[in-house]
Amino acid sequence: MNGLILAVDTAGDGVSLALGVGETTWSVRRRAKAADEALWPALEALLKKAKKRLSDVKGVACVTGPGRFTAVRIGVTFADSLARACGLPVVGVTRFEAFAQRLKGPGRFGLVVPTFREESYLQLWTERGPAAPPTWVAAGALDAALAGAEKVDASEASAKDLLGPARERLGGKRLPLLRPLYLKPA
Which of 74-78, 87-91, 92-96, 155-159 shows the lowest per-residue confidence on average (mean pLDDT)? Predict the structure, then answer.
């Protein structure tokens, strides 16, 4: 897809939004305890910063996880509702997929997103793509789960990182279903 894409990330600390078209991107990040209250003001600020209108957006992307249950649900619901209201296509991208484009060189990488109580979310990657499905790792078990892969902190993925994978997915013939990625067992 070549048009303007809006990317939404509420899975981390606060709200991260980005707009991108071609190589040009604009972004805003807000620290907020209540992502649902911060999303609209952040979107308004982003559109103003980019000198764009919501009607200029041609597709929407959001982080589907992993992250806190409520935070992920808020971002997915916001992106899906906005896309439906505006008649736009919407796609989901995991934090691992968003961050993976930063990886350099050959090797085996363990993309890690730390969470509460020394637990982690993990996905193993190589230069060819995912080497294993994403998983939740209990406290004290991360070193064994890495299985010799280079540990990479993927928690700093932001909405700007979504734009590349989203552009590819939005350009496809058939869009995948938008589903949150919940990894931690109940």
Answer: 155-159
